[in-house]
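Support request from a user on the community tier.

User writes: "When I paste my structure tokens into the form, the page sometimes reloads and wipes my input. The last time it worked, I copied everything first. Here is what I submitted, just in case something in the input itself triggers the reload:"
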């Protein structure tokens, strides 16, 4: 009976496989592809001529190339390493950790391609990948040029206004991304004395800080934003004493 079920699962999977399907195996940085190869037997049974590639992911990204690879894995739905990612002409649609890769799990993964919620799930993953890559760029692409700062601000505002963005996303992006970037623009423009342009930029940064704070004042980020706003208030009050 077990053999019949397995055979049926394989046939079900094979019947829907498109020649356009591609397979990518995401590996931890210290794992040899040969070790993963041993776990791909269910794929070879289902798709004997399948072509697959391997991508190593860094445990901690130290450059933008590694961050881009990590963002691709997030977009594909990878949550465990190593994992097999299935994709067709519309993009990635399933990720199966190799430790649970079987004929049945492969068949179930393939059925996701025709699921009614595929587009919605894919949109969430794309959002998460873009959010991750934005924060990675802020941490790794230093120093940021004026052009990159502006591009990051536009990206941040776009993500914050996205229909998928949760209150947590908007608060996180507003406080840890938009506010620091606007303050960086202010700092870069300040040449020893305030000008109408620098004053406007400072007020824009403060508005972003307050907006992030007010999304949820009781969250950890909300409390940090509140403390930061009070710090700025005290600093400006002190600065006026010397004007």
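"...and here is what came back when it finally went through:"
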């Amino acid at each position: 009976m077990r053999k019949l079920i397995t055979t049926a699962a394989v046939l079900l999977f094979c019947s829907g496989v498109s020649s356009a399907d591609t397979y990518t195996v995401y590996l931890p940085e210290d794992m040899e592809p040969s070790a993963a190869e041993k776990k791909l037997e269910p794929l070879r049974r289902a798709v004997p001529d399948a072509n697959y590639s391997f991508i190593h992911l860094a445990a901690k990204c130290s450059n933008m190339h590694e961050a881009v690879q990590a963002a691709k894995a997030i977009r594909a739905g990878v949550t465990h390493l190593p994992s097999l990612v299935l994709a067709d002409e519309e993009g990635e649609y399933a990720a199966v950790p190799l430790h649970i890769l079987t004929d049945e799990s492969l068949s179930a993964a393939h059925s996701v391609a025709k699921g009614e919620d595929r587009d919605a799930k894919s949109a969430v993953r794309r959002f998460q990948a873009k959010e991750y890559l934005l924060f990675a760029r802020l941490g790794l692409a230093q120093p940021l040029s004026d052009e990159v700062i502006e591009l990051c601000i536009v990206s941040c505002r776009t993500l914050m206004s996205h229909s998928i963005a949760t209150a947590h996303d908007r608060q996180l992006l507003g406080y840890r991304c938009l506010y620091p970037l606007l303050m960086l623009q202010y700092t870069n423009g300040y040449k020893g004395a305030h000008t109408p342009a620098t004053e406007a930029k400072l007020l824009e940064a403060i508005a972003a800080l307050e907006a992030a704070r007010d999304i949820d004042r009781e969250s950890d980020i909300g409390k940090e934003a509140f403390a930061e706003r009070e710090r700025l208030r005290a600093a400006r009050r002190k600065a006026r004493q010397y004007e």
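Agent notes: The reload is a front-end session timeout and is unrelated to the input. DSSP finds ten helices and four strands in the chain. The longest strand covers residues 22-28. Escalated to web team.
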